[in-house]
C-alpha cells in the first residue's frame, strides 16, 4: 500500500497530449479517451428539435437536472429520481460523491486501487483528504482482503471504477458487495464509478445499485457510451440522506447544467436501440484483437480488457515512464499513456486507448519500432 502527500498536480494526460501535438511527425493518438464513433442519431435529432424551441426553453432548468433526463435515468437504474443529480460529466459526479464523504465527518482517507485513474487521487487531495492505494491482483481485479486490511476509522470512502480504467477488469458484484460491507464496518462511503458500464465484454457486469445499500454512491455519464465527451452530461445517485447536500454543492458551483445537452441526451435515451451500443462494443473488440495480435508478434505482455477500451502493454527493457512515452511519440509515432501515471503497480506498462480508427496503423508502427530495437 502507498500513500500520497497533500499536493496535487495538473494531470499528466495534458502533458502527453501536448507533447504529441507538438511533435515533428504524424502521431497516432492512443492517449485520450475521446471516442471517434458516431453518436446516436437520436441525439442529433434531439438537438435539432431543441434549436426550434421557444425562448423560455433556453433558460435555467432545475439545478439538479432536467426532469425528463432524470426520470429516464431513474427508470433504467431502478432508483427514485429524487436521488439523482445530473452533473457536469462523471468528473463532477465523482467530485460530489467524494465531497459528500468528507462532509460526513467520518474520515478523511480515500482508499483507492493501484493502478488508478489519476483524477481520483487528485480530487481526494484537492478536497483535503489523504490517499491510500491498495494494489490490485495480478489479473487486475480489486483485492478485497487488501482493502479490508487497509480500512480503518480514518477511512471516509472506498472508491472503485468498474469496468476499470486502466486495467479493463470488470469487478464481480460479490467483490463490490464485500467492499460495501467493509465501508459499512468503518462508517465510510463506497463510491463506484460505472462510466464504462456499456463497455462490458464479459456479460457479468452488475451495477452497485443492485446492492441497495444506504452508504453507496454510484456515478456515471454518457460521454463514452454515446461518444459525446464535449456534452458533459453525467450523474450521481446518492443515498437519501446525502442528496440535498450534493445538490447544494452542485448548485453553488454550477448553478445548473447545460439544458440543450441534457435535452438531447434524454431524447437519445428514449430513442436509441440496444444495437447502437452493441455495434460500438463490436468495434472495440476488433481493435483489441488488432492491437494484441501485434503485441503478441513482438513478444510484449499485455492485458486483454474485460471492459472499457484500454490495453496495457509491457515491452522488454522499456518501462512505462514519461520519458519512454515521449520516445514512442518521437521514434514510433504512437502516443500512449505511461503506466507510472496510474501508480506503482503497473509502472512498467504503457496504456493505449482504442478510441481511434488508426489502431491497425499504430500496431504496425509499434511492431516496426520494437522489432527494430
Please characterize this protein's 3D structure.
- The protein has 373 residues and is of the alpha/beta class.
- It has two domains: 7-38 and 275-372, Aspartate Aminotransferase, domain 1; 41-271, 3-Layer(aba) Sandwich (Aspartate Aminotransferase, domain 2).
- It has twelve helices and 14 strands.
- It has helices spanning 13-21, 41-51, 67-77, 89-103, 119-126, 144-150, 173-185, 240-254, 259-271, 274-297, 322-332, 359-372; strands spanning 2-3, 28-29, 84-87, 109-114, 130-135, 155-161, 189-193, 216-221, 234-237, 301-302, 310-314, 334-335, 337-338, 350-353.
- The strands form three sheets. An eight-stranded mixed sheet has the order 1-5-4-6-7-8-9-3, with helices on both faces. It has a four-stranded antiparallel sheet with strand order 10-11-14-13, with helices on one face.
- A hairpin with a 7-residue loop joins strand 10 (301-302) and strand 11.
- Helix 3 crosses helix 9 (259-271), helix 4 packs across helix 8 (240-254) and helix 10 (274-297) runs parallel beside helix 12 (359-372).
- 49% of the residues are buried.
- The model has no long low-confidence stretch (mean pLDDT 95).
Keywords:
Aspartate Aminotransferase, domain 1, about 15% strand, eight-stranded mixed sheet, alpha/beta, 14 strands, about 375 residues, Aspartate Aminotransferase, domain 2, globular
Amino acid at each position: 500500500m502507498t500513500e500520497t502527500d497533500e499536493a496535487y498536480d495538473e494531470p499528466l494526460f495534458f502533458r502527453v497530449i501536448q507533447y504529441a501535438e507538438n511533435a515533428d511527425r504524424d502521431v497516432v493518438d492512443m492517449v485520450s479517451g475521446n471516442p471517434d464513433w458516431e453518436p446516436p442519431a437520436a441525439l442529433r435529432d434531439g438537438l435539432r428539435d431543441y434549436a426550434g424551441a421557444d425562448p423560455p426553453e433556453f433558460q435555467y432548468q432545475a439545478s439538479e437536472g432536467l426532469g425528463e433526463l432524470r426520470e429516464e435515468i431513474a427508470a433504467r437504474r431502478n432508483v427514485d429520481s429524487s436521488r439523482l443529480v445530473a452533473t457536469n460529466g462523471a468528473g463532477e459526479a465523482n467530485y460530489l460523491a467524494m465531497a459528500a464523504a468528507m462532509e460526513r465527518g467520518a474520515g478523511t482517507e480515500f482508499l483507492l486501487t493501484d493502478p488508478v485513474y489519476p483524477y481520483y487521487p487528485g480530487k481526494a487531495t484537492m478536497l483535503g483528504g489523504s490517499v491510500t492505494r491498495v494494489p490490485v491482483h495480478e489479473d487486475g481485479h480489486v483485492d478485497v482482503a487488501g482493502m479490508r486490511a487497509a480500512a480503518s476509522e480514518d477511512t471516509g470512502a472506498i472508491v472503485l471504477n468498474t469496468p476499470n480504467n486502466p486495467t479493463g477488469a470488470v469487478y464481480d458484484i460479490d467483490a463490490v458487495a464485500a467492499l460495501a460491507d467493509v465501508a459499512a464496518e468503518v462508517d465510510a462511503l463506497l463510491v463506484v464509478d460505472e462510466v464504462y458500464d456499456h463497455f462490458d465484454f464479459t456479460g457479468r457486469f452488475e451495477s452497485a445499485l443492485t446492492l441497495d445499500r444506504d452508504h453507496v454512491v454510484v456515478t456515471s455519464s454518457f460521454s463514452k457510451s454515446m461518444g459525446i465527451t464535449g456534452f458533459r452530461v453525467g450523474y450521481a445517485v446518492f443515498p437519501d440522506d446525502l442528496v440535498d447536500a450534493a445538490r447544494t454543492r452542485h448548485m453553488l458551483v454550477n448553478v445548473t447544467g447545460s439544458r440543450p445537452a441534457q435535452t438531447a441526451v434524454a431524447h437519445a435515451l428514449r430513442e436509441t436501440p440496444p444495437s447502437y451500443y452493441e455495434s460500438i462494443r463490436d468495434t472495440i473488440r476488433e481493435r483489441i484483437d488488432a492491437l494484441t495480435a501485434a503485441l503478441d508478434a513482438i513478444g510484449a505482455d499485455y492485458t486483454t480488457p474485460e471492459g472499457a477500451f484500454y490495453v496495457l502493454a509491457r515491452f522488454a527493457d522499456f518501462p512505462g515512464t514519461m520519458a519512454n512515452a515521449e520516445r514512442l511519440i518521437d521514434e514510433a509515432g504512437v502516443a500512449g499513456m505511461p503506466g507510472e501515471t496510474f501508480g506503482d503497480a503497473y509502472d512498467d506498462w504503457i496504456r493505449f486507448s482504442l478510441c481511434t480508427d488508426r489502431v491497425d496503423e499504430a500496431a504496425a508502427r509499434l511492431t516496426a519500432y520494437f522489432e527494430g530495437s
